[in-house]
Amino acid sequence: MRMARDEPELERDAQRYSTQPLPPYRYLPGLHPHPQANPHGHSYGADDEPHPPWQPGEWRTLDGWRHGVDLCNAHYYWESHEAWEALWHAVPRRTTPHRFLQGLIKVSAALLKVRLAMLTQKDIAGAQSLAPAGLELLASVGHERLMGLALGEHIAALRAYFGPLEHDELPDICASPLILLDD
After folding, report:
1. Among 64, 100, 120, 183, which is least packed, fewest CB within 10 Å?
2. Is residue 4 part of a domain?
3. Treating both helix axes as pointing N-terminal to C-terminal, what angle do 63-73 and 96-116 enclose, rounded to 10 degrees?
4. Residue 16 CB neighbour total at 10 angstroms
5. In whole angstroms, what is the distance from residue 111 CA to residue 76 CA?
6. Which domain holds residue 95?
7. Residue 166 domain-assigned?
């Protein structure tokens, strides 16, 4: 099993927003032990307490949000999805923060599909459906800035990044846009 330290091509000089450590490996379905279900998984036995309700204005102290950003920026796409999903479940449906997180979760899933396609499957259909769905949700938020993220700029960077998918080509996973927060 490839550990994160064995993937220097994925190392980035990105600002960290949380103090939580990064897991020892970037989970890839079919290639690694499932992080939560497998006793050898990096998050096996971790606390699954539901996240308490929260407000977008709390983003500076919302560790699940900030850790999810760190995970996504470091190519831990499945893990970022999980971090944000806990927050997503804690807000009312069809609200701005709900759509915002759902969009980021879909984008993270699309990035995971790109990574998998580069390594094994060569099937980009998942990324081709998830990326536009995530971008549409993010655009529907209707805010230029939310939870420290310049959303318009980030959406534009993601659209450019995912552009090759429209021509059945894979974007370079190492060039995926960073999530940059006002800190």
Report:
1. 183
2. no
3. 30
4. 13
5. 10
6. 60-173
7. yes
- Average pLDDT (158-168) is 97
> What CATH number corresponds to the domain at position 164?
1.10.3450.10
> Average pLDDT in the 21-33 region?
81
What residue type is assigned to position 61 of the chain?
Answer: T
**Cβ-Cβ contacts under 8 Å for 167 (sequence gap 6 or more):** none
Place of tokens 């995530």: 134
Number of domains in the chain: 1
- Residue 39 pLDDT more than 90? no
Q: Considering the chain, what percentage of its residues have pLDDT values greater than 70?
A: 91
Cα angle, residue 64 at apex, residues 63 and 70 outer, rounded to 5°: 85
Which amino acid belongs to residue 44? Answer: Y
- In this structure, are residues 146 and 100 in contact, taking their beta carbons and an 8 Å threshold? yes
For the entire predicted model, the pTM comes to 0.92
